[in-house]
Design a protein that fits this description.
Elements: E1 2-5, E2 11-14, E3 34-35, E4 40-41, H1 47-51, E5 56-60, H2 63-76, E6 99-102, E7 105-109, H3 114-130, E8 137-146, E9 154-161, E10 168-173, E11 176-181, H4 186-194, E12 204-211, H5 231-243, E13 246-250, H6 253-262, E14 266-276, H7 287-311, H8 329-338
Helix pairs in contact: 2-7, 3-6
Bound molecules: the ligand O=P(O)(O)O[C@@H]1C[C@H](O)[C@@H](CO)O1 and uracil.
The site of uracil has 10 residues, from strand 8, strand 13 and strand 14.
């Protein structure tokens, strides 16, 4: 095992072969590990053959969004299903989360808020470990409220902070408060930004994301069931956090950043804004507009995955998966050179 320095404060352990390390000595001693909320187990399922080829884990709040992403990425990478079959929700019998696998991509719903995404991340990180997945990359494709930016803008988080602007996830453990740094991969953030194009009919920006424990009072809304502050108080708060660099507010990035970082897994959070919070609280855009907006983070992540697979020679330029299905070696080389920034 080797040590990688992430910052002066913290080092993380890594196995040289890139497999995910668990920071829990108890798991190895257990006869079997039941991933209860995924409806999977380390003995009941052959996790290595089911998931050993995973490279990308893409998470989003709703089962519908992750199913849609699974079908979209399937089409984009030319992944074929056996005739007459459809994608299967692998975790359907957990009745908690939905999970779809398309070649090297796992698409999983995480529900709403830090507790829900946290439980899922524990089990997905263990799944990566049991399946001996190498160097997985995790993405959250979400929705958020923007501050001073138009609805439909895509925000790639450079940092996640809590409602008090602290870049840490706090969790009481055995009666003591534990703090974990919430860090996202800076290089991955830049690489994603570079994949936004001038032809996209919306902006893609990098910004600081505030992650709250609540949608209403936690995000300073005036339209919850309860509200003990004034419109002026709300606007002063939003102005203050905006000045501190916050561009958007959502409810999972802190846990996503902290737990992936603690596991030594590269991750990024990409959210589309549904409302400019300086102009209002309610999400008023029509359903069709909201649904098109939600596709925007998916498009960016899909571009990243395709670029990655093209560079590894696992995808042809016209988007067909295969072992070495490169159509024109000369053009492929060009793609490789253009996209040197992608790992
Ligand atoms: O998964 P998404 O991005 O839709 O999650 C955001 C944050 C909360 O879970 C939810 C609130 O509407 O939207
Ligand atoms: O304002 C918003 C919109 C989506 N999700 C949030 O958490 N906040």
């Amino acid at each position: 095992m080797s040590r990688r320095t992430i910052s002066q404060e913290e080092e993380i352990d890594e196995y040289p072969d890139g497999t995910v390390k668990l920071r829990n000595p108890h798991i190895e001693l257990m006869d079997q590990d039941i991933l209860y909320h995924l409806a999977l187990g380390s003995e009941s399922h052959d996790l290595v053959s089911m998931f050993g080829d995973v490279k990308f884990v893409v998470m989003g709040g709703t089962p519908k969004r992750v199913e849609q992403f699974a079908y979209y990425i399937m089409q984009e990478i030319g992944h074929k299903l056996p005739a007459g079959t459809t994608l299967l929700d692998i975790s359907q019998y957990s009745y908690r989360y939905s999970m779809y696998k398309v070649g090297p991509v796992l698409s999983i719903s995480h529900g709403m808020g830090i507790p829900s995404v946290g439980i899922l991340l524990h089990e997905v990180i263990k799944l990566m470990y049991h399946a001996r997945v190498k160097d997985p990359i995790f993405f959250r494709i979400g929705t958020c409220g923007g501050i001073g930016i138009e609805g439909g803008t895509v925000v790639i988080s450079e940092e996640a902070v809590d409602g008090l602007l602290r870049p840490v996830l706090e969790l009481p453990v055995l009666g003591k408060m534990h703090s974990r740094p919430a860090r996202l991969d800076k290089k991955l953030t830049r690489e994603l930004k570079a994949l936004a194009t001038a032809e996209d009919p919306y902006d893609t920006i990098i910004g600081k994301t505030m992650c709250t424990y609540d949608f209403y009072e936690g995000q300073g809304r005036l339209d919850g069931a309860f509200c003990d502050y004034t419109d002026e108080d709300k606007m002063a708060f939003l102005g203050r956090v905006h000045e501190a660099g916050v561009t958007n507010i959502e409810m999972e990035s802190l846990s996503f950043a902290a737990l992936t970082h603690h596991a030594g897994i590269k991750s990024a959070v990409i959210c589309v804004t549904l409302v400019d919070r300086l102009k209002g609280d309610q999400v008023l855009a029509p359903k069709e507009v909201l649904s098109e907006w939600q596709e925007r983070p998916q498009k960016l992540v899909c571009r990243y995955i395709k670029r990655y697979l093209q560079m590894k020679g696992r995808l042809s330029l016209d988007g067909h998966c295969g072992s070495m299905c490169v159509k024109s070696p000369r053009r492929f080389k060009l793609v490789q050179q253009e996209s040197e920034h992608v790992d």
